[in-house]
């Protein structure tokens, strides 16, 4: 019974050890000319891992903050898309050395979001920075008439990209840390209750 707090501490430390510091993954558009996707365009993304791995997951976070699994690419370049499918109508994926590719065959507003690649190595989760892929915003000028002045509408405030990326990463970390930690704590409490009942007999 005295070892229970120490066990809880070790469990929490083990689950909270995720991919920060010491190891980086990078994700970028393939082709230096690509800055924003366009409707109907073939969009290619690339994820680089600096060490041997067992495969990479591609994930998209939409504007509402919902995560969407796209594909798992194994170290042998085998792909598993959503629904345990080997191929996809919307995506292509593959591996070339330590570069993992994701291709959106024909970009649509449905594909907008922040793209991540993830890797699980030795029970530690590593993740890349997010790569925003949003269609360019088109603005139309308001018509003006002679002799009348129109007040300019205040432009909507835009979030600092660095701040929004930090919030996305924090949200992402919360999912992969607190959900398993909560589950493990519940199991630990159940085991503790069973132990107490058995010891009282």
TrEMBL record:
One of its GO terms (cellular component) is external side of plasma membrane. InterPro entries: CD8_asu, Ig-like_dom, Ig-like_dom_sf, Ig-like_fold, Ig_sub, Ig_V-set. The chain crosses the membrane at residues 175-199. This is T-cell surface glycoprotein CD8 alpha chain. It comes from Pampusana beccarii (Western bronze ground-dove). Keywords: Adaptive immunity, Cell membrane, Disulfide bond, Glycoprotein, Immunity, Immunoglobulin domain, Lipoprotein, Membrane, Palmitate, Signal, Transmembrane, Transmembrane helix. The keyword tRNA-binding does not apply. It is found in: Cell membrane. It is a single-pass type I membrane protein. Residues 5-128 form the Ig-like domain. One of its GO terms (biological process) is cell surface receptor signaling pathway. Residues 142-161 have a biased composition (Low complexity). Residues 1-21 form the signal peptide. The keyword Cell membrane applies. It holds the Pfam family V-set. SMART domains: IG. Its main location: membrane. Residues 142-163 are annotated as: Disordered. It comes from the Eukaryota.
């Amino acid at each position: 019974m005295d070892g229970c707090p120490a066990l809880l501490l070790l469990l929490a430390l083990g689950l909270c050890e995720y991919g920060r510091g010491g190891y980086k993954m990078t994700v970028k558009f393939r082709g230096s000319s690509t800055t924003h996707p366009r409707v109907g365009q073939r969009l290619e993304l690339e994820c680089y891992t600096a060490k041997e791995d067992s495969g990479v997951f591609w994930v998209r976070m939409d504007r509402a903050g919902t995560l969407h699994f796209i594909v798992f690419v194994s170290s042998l370049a085998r792909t598993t898309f959503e629904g345990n499918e080997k191929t996809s109508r919307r995506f292509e994926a593959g591996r070339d050395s330590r570069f993992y590719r994701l291709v959106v065959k024909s970009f649509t507003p449905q594909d907008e979001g922040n793209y991540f690649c993830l890797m699980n190595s030795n029970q530690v989760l590593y993740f890349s920075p997010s790569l925003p892929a949003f269609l360019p915003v088109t603005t139309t000028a308001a018509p003006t008439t002679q002799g009348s002045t129109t007040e300019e509408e205040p432009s909507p405030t835009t979030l600092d990209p660095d701040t929004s990326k930090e919030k996305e990463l924090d949200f992402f970390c919360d999912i992969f840390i607190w959900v398993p930690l909560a589950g493990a704590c519940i199991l630990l409490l159940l085991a503790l209750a069973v132990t107490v009942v058995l010891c009282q007999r």
